[in-house]
Design goal:
The protein is of the alpha/beta class. It is 17% helix and 35% strand.
């Protein structure tokens, strides 16, 4: 009996030891869990501060982008590059603007010089600015290097407690080229008819609500948006669609079919509804209503004849000598009968007495006003300058089977009276070969001239390849063409409430606003290039443009 009690007492001692061991283990585990929890809280807090610093840096970048967009006092330029002097003036204006704006009510010190491993330059820094979060703030540093005055760099440093993040981006001092964001930009109406593909956006400043600013056939495609200054809101009721309104008067057409909220209408299968009355029959990525540019929707640089001064091109050319023209002139009409230039059109036409130049190679040539010349099988090297566009000094020039190894430039036309499009015209027929071998980023710069490419030739089947901007008063493109640039139709049509449209393409059943013959039908593609500069000769403001591709983050 005694032995049994002794054994049980020994077991009770073992249990106590085991209990203490387990207690120690769980205590250690509890301490470890507590420490881990504390570490996680600290990590979470640190990550929160890092995110706060990054958001602060992003706020600083947006603030900097706002400053460069709204800076005032920048110069304008007529050339397609910005000089060092203009870049320096832009930097001075930006520094002054940042200082006088007094962000967050704080004083910004004057710009200073700096030197780092990449070189020397100028810099302007702001004091710490609040973001609205108690512990978060940012500073902005604007700077540039002497070796590249046309690039202004931005560093935005955000902090939240001890955490810090930095965002940088380059901004180019460049010429405003907003119009090049569009494949077609027009003051007039625009018609797409037939196999036309537009790889970009379209814009029209046509202001009359009684006639549609756009018309596209079902076989046309716009790989972009279509923008109009007109609204889809009835100003009387304040409600949308189903179509556009002019005041309280319902418009006689639908640009597109809209639902009761003013949005594109879709059927039960998710397909966009296109009714036969819709003006936009072809594909597009959407229609933007009420689009403006500043105070005037047509004020984009390059959209007004007053933006143009082409005299620098004229000084580089010499008048084509009289000996280059045939002794016998020919009579033609504009408009003319289908396939016959020597007869007037069904409604009559302007009679033209043409000087004829055949089988010549001309370099940096000038066509004098009133020549109304006909060039046949000619090659033009360098600049071809066409004078005219003024009362008593006009020019309607036809090019038949010609090759152009440089840009075609005209005097800015101030002739706006009735029939201007007949008197001042560049008319391309037959095989037109465009191979611009100069640095001028334009194929045709003919402000307020009627530009007609590939029209009324029943037998043509060639592809016209045009690189760079095509600028005219009204631009018509027929037949086959590949265009790598922006079409700008900039004639002010506000005095002609029922007329003028830029016609791109044609079908035998739909020639846009003009008649059609078999030679007009072809395949046309238009691909804009936003990175090109506007040609010299167009006055535009100097701007500071962010380069999104240079965005970078760092600790």
């Amino acid at each position: 009996m005694f032995a049994v009690q002794q054994i049980r007492g020994g077991r009770r001692g073992v249990v106590v030891v085991l209990a203490m061991v387990f207690l120690a283990m769980f205590s250690a585990l509890a301490v470890a869990l507590a420490m881990a929890s504390g570490s996680n809280v600290q990590v979470a807090s640190n990550q929160h501060k890092v995110n706060g610093a990054l958001h602060a840096a992003q706020s600083g970048l947006e603030c900097a982008k706002y400053m460069v967009k709204t800076v005032t006092g920048l110069a304008q330029t007529n050339t397609n590059t910005v000089s060092n002097a203009q870049a320096n003036q832009t930097w001075t204006s930006l520094c002054s603007y940042v200082q006088t704006t007094r962000l967050d009510g704080k004083t910004v010190a004057a710009a200073s010089r700096f030197t780092d491993s990449l070189g020397s330059g100028d810099q302007l820094g702001t004091p710490a600015l609040r973001t609205g979060v108690a512990s978060a703030q940012f500073t902005i540093r604007f700077y540039r290097y002497d070796a590249d005055p046309r690039t202004i760099k931005i560093q935005s440093t955000g902090t939240d407690g001890v955490a810090s993040r930095r965002i940088s981006m380059d901004m180019a001092v460049t010429k405003d080229r907003e119009v090049l964001n569009y494949a077609i930009a027009s003051r007039a109406r625009t018609w797409l008819a037939g196999d036309v593909t537009v790889h970009g956006n379209m814009y029209s400043a046509w202001k009359y609500q009684s006639i549609s600013p756009f018309h596209t056939t079902s076989d046309s495609t716009v790989d972009g948006t279509i923008s109009t200054i007109l609204s889809n809101i009835n100003p009387t009721t304040g409600k949308a669609g189903p179509d556009l309104y002019a005041g309280s008067v319902k418009m006689p057409y639908d640009l597109e079919t809209l639902d009761s909220h003013g949005n594109p209408a879709y059927d039960g299968s998710g397909h966009k509804i296109i009714n036969l009355t819709d003006e936009i029959q072809g594909q597009c990525q959407g229609i933007n209503y009420g689009v403006s540019y500043g105070d005037n929707a047509a004020n984009m640089p390059g959209m007004k004849v007053t933006d143009y001064d082409t005299s620098s091109y004229k000084t580089q050319t010499a008048a084509i000598p009289s000996s280059s023209y045939n002794t016998t002139k020919v009579t033609e009409y504009m408009p003319h009968a289908d396939g016959n230039y020597t007869l007037p059109g069904p409604s009559g036409g302007l009679k033209l007495t043409r000087y004829v130049c055949e089988n010549k190679t001309l370099t940096n040539a000038l066509v004098a006003a009133n020549k109304n010349a006909l060039f046949k099988n000619c090659t033009f090297n360098g600049i071809l300058y066409v004078d005219g566009g003024r009362t008593g000094n006009t020019n309607n020039v036809r090019f038949d089977n010609c090759t152009f190894n440089g840009p075609i430039v005209t005097t800015p036309s101030t002739d706006t009276s009735s029939g201007w499009w007949q008197r001042n015209q560049l008319y391309f027929t037959g095989t037109a070969t465009f191979q611009n071998q100069t640095t001028v980023p334009a194929t045709i710069m003919a402000p307020n001239f009627n530009v007609d490419i590939g029209n009324t030739n029943p037998t043509r089947s060639e592809n016209n390849v045009l690189t760079g901007a095509i600028i005219g008063g009204i631009v018509d493109v027929r037949g086959h063409a590949q265009i790598y640039g922006t079409i700008i139709s900039m004639f002010d049509t506000s005095s002609y409430s029922s007329g003028y449209a830029s016609n791109i393409g044609a079908t035998l059943g739909d020639g846009g606003s003009e008649t059609t013959d078999p030679g007009d039908v072809g395949v046309i593609t238009i691909t804009p290039d936003q990175d090109k500069m506007l040609p010299s000769g167009i006055t535009a403001p100097i701007i500071i443009k962010p380069n999104q591709q240079t965005y970078a983050e760092s600790a």
